[in-house]
């Protein structure tokens, strides 16, 4: 009788749908997205509506892409369009879907020694910082924010690996840690607007420059291709994507504010 019961138990377990055994999605997200506090708003609603636990792996965009390539996550939510498209083109993700955007801003000491408040563009602001050898903290971590920063320096004809470490400080850390470093050193730093608004250790720092179209910051969702990594929870990843792009998900994103300011603008395209 015991053998019969045990055999029946094995049969039930083996035929259970995979989603019922583990309704969890492993999602690699950027530190800037997590620092904003938006995940605290979205995750409980996702759990309530879909019964899915979203386990966040909070890393920079470069590391998120590596996790996706190795199949260690089911989807990624990042902000570096060129790298994302390359990721899709190489077959690691089935597609790329835009979810929301905000912008990057340039922060600095309130006395603004490089006078970037009068800059005509993000490139001009960076050149003023470099010309004055004003202390600048870079994430230096291959994140989407770091890649955008490098792109702006390159547009100004500059290579960061030639900069003097006396004024150009690569932190090699997430957005929160980099902002803390900038605050402690009273230095310039580029951050996404959401992280800046959420940041509680501003001290003498203030937002000095924004508005250049070059500082546009798009976030996109990429589900990992199950043909490459058959163990990934592709169906659950698609359910999560559909929810993020739904009217409810987009409204929650758009209505999330700090101090009366909107942190993200939803822009998911319908499919």
Helix percent reads 40-55%
**Can you tell me the CATH superfamily of the largest domain?**
Periplasmic binding protein-like II
Query: Low-confidence spans: pLDDT under 50, at least 5 residues?
Result: 1-21
Query: What is the terminal separation in angstroms?
Result: 53 Å
Instruction: Characterize the main sheet.
Output: 10 strands, mixed
Summarize model confidence as the mean pLDDT: 91
Overall radius of gyration: 21 Å
Number of strands: 12
CATH-scheme architecture of the largest domain: 3-Layer(aba) Sandwich
Question: Which fold name corresponds to the CATH topology of the largest domain?
Answer: D-Maltodextrin-Binding Protein, domain 2
Order of helices and strands: HHEHHEHEHEHEHEHEHEEHHEEE
Which percent band covers the strand fraction? 15-25%
CATH top-level class of the largest domain? Alpha Beta
Number of helices: 12
Which structural class best describes the helix and strand composition? alpha/beta
Give the tally of structural domains.
2
Which term fits the overall shape? globular
């Amino acid at each position: 009788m015991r053998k019969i019961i045990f055999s029946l138990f094995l049969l039930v377990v083996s035929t259970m749908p995979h989603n019922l055994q583990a309704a969890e999605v492993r999602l690699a997200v950027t530190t800037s997205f997590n620092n904003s506090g938006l995940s605290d708003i979205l995750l409980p609603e996702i759990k309530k509506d879909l019964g899915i636990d979203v386990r966040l792996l909070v890393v920079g965009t470069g590391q998120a892409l590596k996790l996706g390539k190795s199949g260690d996550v089911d989807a990624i939510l990042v902000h570096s369009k060129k790298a994302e498209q390359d990721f899709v083109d190489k077959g690691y993700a089935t597609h790329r879907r835009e979810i929301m955007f905000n912008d990057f801003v340039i922060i600095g000491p309130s006395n603004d020694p490089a006078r970037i408040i009068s800059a005509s563009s993000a490139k001009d602001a960076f050149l003023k910082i470099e010309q004055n050898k004003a202390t600048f903290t870079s994430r230096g971590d291959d994140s989407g924010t770091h890649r955008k920063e490098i792109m702006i320096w390159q547009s100004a004809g500059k290579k960061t690996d030639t900069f003097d470490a006396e004024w150009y400080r690569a932190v090699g850390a997430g957005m929160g840690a980099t902002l803390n470093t900038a605050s402690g050193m009273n230095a310039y730093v580029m951050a996404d607007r959401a992280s800046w608004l959420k940041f509680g250790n501003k001290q003498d720092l203030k937002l000095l420059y924004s508005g250049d179209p070059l500082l546009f910051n798009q976030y996109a969702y990429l589900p990992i291709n199950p043909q490459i990594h058959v163990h990934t929870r592709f169906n659950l990843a698609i359910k999560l994507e559909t929810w993020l792009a739904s009217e409810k998900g987009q409204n929650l994103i758009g209505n999330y504010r700090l101090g009366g300011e909107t942190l993200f603008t939803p822009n998911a395209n319908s499919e």
